[in-house]
């Protein structure tokens, strides 16, 4: 498996070309297509059986569903639009509220300490929408009292 993202994308492009060549009957077997396009035969066979590209699949370890994460993203963007971007603790608290609404077990499932940070990291639209801590001594130095 290639290590860099560019090589993975290039390999994925060759896999798609091999699949289209097999489906259009230009190449008769998966083994021959794998040799021609310089890709692993097992990967090509898996894709022909319906396996998806690893970069496009959603991990099973996400606590919130895709729709819950989308609504959380819209909530953050809405607060930011109104000039009150939430802090990471508020994002985490809202995620826990969403989880408690869905999960009715006695101790409700909660997201972890770093969940909000990871959520912001994997959601590019939100990277600049989260309020950070204020450095009060620095603010006083920049804007002294008259």
Automatic annotation (TrEMBL):
InterPro entries: Homeodomain-like_sf, HTH_CenpB_DNA-bd_dom, HTH_Psq. This is Unnamed protein product. GO terms for molecular function: DNA binding. It comes from the Eukaryota. Pfam families: HTH_psq, HTH_Tnp_Tc5. Residues 56-129 form the HTH CENPB-type domain. It comes from Aspergillus oryzae (Yellow koji mold). Keywords: DNA-binding, Nucleus. The keyword Repeat does not apply.
């Amino acid at each position: 498996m290639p290590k860099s993202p560019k090589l993975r994308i290039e390999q994925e492009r060759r896999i798609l070309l091999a699949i289209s060549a097999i489906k259009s009957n230009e190449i008769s077997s998966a083994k021959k297509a794998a040799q021609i396009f310089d890709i692993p035969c097992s990967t090509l066979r898996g894709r022909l059986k319906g396996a998806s590209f690893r970069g496009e699949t959603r991990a099973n370890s996400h606590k919130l569903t895709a729709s819950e994460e989308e609504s959380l993203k819209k909530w953050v963007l809405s607060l930011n639009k109104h000039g009150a971007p939430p802090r990471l603790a508020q994002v985490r608290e809202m995620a826990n509220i969403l989880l408690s609404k869905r999960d009715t077990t006695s101790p409700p499932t909660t997201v972890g300490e770093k969940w909000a940070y990871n959520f912001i990291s994997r959601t590019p639209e939100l990277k600049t929408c989260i309020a950070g801590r204020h450095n009060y001594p620095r603010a006083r130095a920049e804007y002294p009292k008259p």
